[in-house]
Design goal:
4 helices, mainly alpha, two-stranded antiparallel sheet, Multidrug-efflux Transporter Regulator, Chain: A, Domain 2
């Protein structure tokens, strides 16, 4: 998965992509127990019944990385990071709706000649 070129590593994440718990730990630089705690706190929502069967989408990998940054930068505990992530995602959804409504309103005004 990771590619290396002159000491630079990168992983291309696609929301349709799925990674195992082992790959998640590698990509995020964390231990399996941290992934389990993230799942129990509601930060991550894997597919699969047991940790050995869990798979995570690219979006979940991004969410895990974001939670880790929130913990590191703001010194939040995992529950606080989970709440912050939910609120940030809600803000993103609301901004998207506002943009959509503004575009619709603009097209309605243009059609009316206002």
């Amino acid at each position: 998965m990771p590619t290396s070129n002159n000491g630079i590593e990168g992983v291309v994440l696609d929301e349709r992509m799925a990674v195992s718990i082992t790959e998640m730990t590698s990509v995020c630089g964390i231990e399996v127990e941290v992934v389990r705690m993230m799942v129990s706190e509601g930060v991550l929502h894997p597919r699969g019944a047991a940790p050995e069967q869990w798979s995570f989408s690219g979006t979940e990998v991004q969410r895990a990385r974001r939670a880790l940054r929130l913990q590191r930068d703001l010194e939040l505990n995992l529950a606080g990071a989970a709440l912050a992530l939910d609120l940030l995602e809600e803000i993103d959804r609301l901004r998207s709706r506002v943009r959509c409504l503004e575009q619709h309103l603009g097209s309605v005004r243009d059609a009316d000649g206002s």
